[in-house]
Amino acid sequence: MKIQLASATPYDFAQSVQDYGWIGLAPCLWLENGQMLRRVERLTSGNVILIHIAPGGEERGSGLETALLEAQLDAGEPLTATEEEEIIAKLRWMLRLDEDLSSFYERAQASDGLWTEVRTGRGRLLRSPTLFEDVVKTICTTNTTWRQTKGMVQRLVDYLGSSYPQDPDLKAFPAPEQIEAAGIEFLQKEIRLGYRSAYVHQLAQEVVSGERDLTRLKESDLPTPELKKELLTIKGVGEYAANTLLMALGRYGELALDSEMRAFVKEKYFDGQQVTDAEILAVYDEWDQWRYLAYWFDAGA
DNA sequence: GTCCAGGTCGCGC
DNA sequence: GCGCGACATGGA
To answer: Is the pLDDT of residue A74 over 70?
Structure first.
């Protein structure tokens, strides 16, 4: 079946989806030929479906333009209304179709360089349908190379994710239960998460047991510092990961300072000279609630 | 072999 | 609060 998703304009689907590295991590895949995002998703019913998302034209009415996306949903059985609702909510979250970026665009407009980058409708950085997946993936980016991150996530999906029945090689991101059941040794020896195995397994265990509720954080209106404090209680999540996850939650006021950002800012603003972290952070200080996006597009996304 | 990669933890001070 | 070594893995 096909469904349509409406999004505020401006919105450049292909750019926005590819502006964040997550597009390179399983089970997401960018199909260059069709300019489509493909992903396998496991619904709470247990059904595993195959999703293809692409721009689906534009609707015009009373001066308001609404960008439309079309999602092709393939499943063994027709989806129930509940399943359809679940998938729509997940896709809207994943693509950030409901985030209000207007104030960011206004700020960017006052900054010529940045505005030319984002004016076409960029800024809706790809995230995962669940915060659990984003936490696991973020932990897999720490103290390693992007190449290894991709490998770790790919193996998590291949070894532990549920298959799309019509093509068993296509798998979903594993649910907490599936990671928990795998055990630390498996995460270590087969998935090769290294010392992260214990962190990822502990998180999965906490979520399964119910002692940690990550879904609650998605709708939380907690002040950012408190939200951050809570993210920092996750073993394996430090300053960088917490700020990355705040970004995933739509809080762009904190910068995720890592080796990549240090190198970029040092080169662009300090002529390659040695700089302190405080000096790096100061570069984007004026962007207040939009610091993360300001850096992201300054660095060229 | 050594160093480091989109860091974090646990310790001692 | 800050500094420091350890930590799995794999490539340079």
So the answer is: yes
Dump pLDDT digits (tens) for A243-289. 999 999 999 999 999 999 999 999 999 999 989 999 999 999 999 99
Mean pLDDT of chain A: 95
Nucleotide nearest to A152 (CA to C1'): C9
A33-52 per-position pLDDT tens digit:
999 999 999 999 999 999 99
* H or E element at residue A181: helix A176-182
CA atoms within 13 A on the CB side of A227: 26
A189/A119 Cα distance (integer angstroms): 46
In sequence order, the 6+-apart residues with CB closer than 8 A to the CB of A287 are: A107, A293, A294
pLDDT of residue A62: 53
Orientation of helix A224-231 relative to helix A239-248, angle to 10°: 120
- Residues A292 and A254: their CA atoms lie apart, in Å, by 6
Q: A69 - beta bridge partners?
A: A5, A55
Q: CA A268, CA A72: separation in Å to the nearest integer?
A: 42
Protein-proximal nucleotides of chain B (any atom < 7 Å from a CB): 4-10
A74 CA to B1 C1' distance (Å): 53
Q: Answer for the pair A211, A176: CB distance below 8 angstroms, yes or no.
A: no
Give dist(CA A294, CA A284) in Å, integer.
7
For the CA atoms of chain A, what is the radius of gyration? Answer: 19
Question: What is the CA A96 to C1' C1 distance in angstroms?
Answer: 37
Range name among A8-12, A159-163, A260-264 with the lowest pLDDT average: A8-12
- Bridge partners, residue A72, by sequence: A2, A52
